[in-house]
């Protein structure tokens, strides 16, 4: 029976992806910073493991606790919305620590067993922001674009060993932090200096007025498809809005 390790499963895309793989008969190692009872179904095929992807000791402990895995899904991430000029560099580094370096660190920790076994898949969950030009997302987009480039090169490095790397690009879901802020028509005031506020309000209104959004199930199903794809496809847009952006690109 196959085993998948998924990061960031306390809510949203990660939690739905964990549920989907479990429903398909897989063993699931669901990780989150602070495990909480009741978030995921009770099952002998579900294990919840504490993991902070920015902490090397936490990564080592989680990988050891997980044991052999066939698939790694790097889903853990933090949102960031605001004007770049108003974003402190400490916040920029915080976003990259989780969204970019956390992905790399987890991948590096799991790769040896996949390479030695000669099989496996690494799926990196990025974002539809990589598919189009979107305001108020400069830092977030930069962190996710870095993962896209990382995944493309990683796929080439792993191919001779029978290991695959894929990127899943979810669109905006109404239950995500980014979408919630957008549909409320607000952004963190400290990240939007006064000269930008009229622009930010319009950008938020445009976002909340879009016709297409992504469901959590769209992402779970796309991750599943990326894991099982054997055509060599590298990038998988997830959700109606992401698919439309990909087609336009």
Notes on the protein architecture:
The protein is an alpha/beta fold and 249 residues long. It has a single domain, classed as 3-Layer(aba) Sandwich (Rossmann fold), CATH 3.40.50. Helices cover 46% and strands 14% of the residues. The protein contains eight helices and seven strands. It has helices spanning 12-23, 56-66, 89-117, 138-158, 177-183, 197-208, 216-228, 240-248; strands at 3-6, 27-32, 46-50, 71-74, 121-125, 164-170, 235-238. A seven-stranded parallel beta sheet has the order 3-2-1-4-5-6-7, with helices on both faces. It is globular and about 55 Å long.
Which features does this protein show?
single chain, 249 residues, alpha/beta, Rossmann fold, seven-stranded parallel beta sheet, 8 helices, 7 strands, globular
């Amino acid at each position: 029976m196959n085993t998948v390790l998924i990061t960031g499963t306390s809510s949203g895309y990660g939690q739905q992806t964990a549920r989907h793989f479990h429903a398909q008969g897989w063993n699931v190692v669901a990780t989150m910073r602070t495990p909480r009872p009741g978030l995921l179904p009770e099952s002998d095929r579900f294990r919840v493991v504490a993991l902070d992807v920015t902490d090397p000791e936490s990564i080592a402990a989680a990988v050891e606790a997980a044991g052999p895995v066939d698939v790694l899904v790097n889903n853990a991430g933090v949102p960031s919305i605001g004007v770049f000029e108003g974003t402190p560099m400490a916040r920029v580094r915080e976003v990259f620590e989780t969204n970019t370096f956390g992905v790399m660190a987890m991948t590096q920790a799991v790769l040896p067993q996949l390479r030695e076994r000669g099989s496996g898949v690494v799926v990196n969950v990025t974002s539809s922001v990589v598919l189009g030009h979107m305001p108020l997302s400069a830092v977030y987009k930069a962190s996710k674009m870095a993962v896209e480039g990382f995944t493309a090169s990683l796929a080439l490095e792993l191919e001779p060993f029978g290991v695959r790397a894929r990127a899943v690009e979810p669109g905006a879901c109404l239950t995500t932090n980014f979408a919630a802020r957008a549909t409320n028509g607000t952004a963190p005031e400290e990240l939007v200096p006064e000269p930008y506020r009229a622009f930010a309000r319009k950008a938020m209104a445009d976002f909340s007025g879009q016709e297409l959004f992504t469901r959590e199930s769209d992402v779970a199903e796309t991750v599943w498809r990326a894991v099982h794809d054997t055509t060599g496809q590298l990038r998988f847009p997830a959700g109606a809005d992401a698919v439309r952006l990909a087609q336009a690109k």
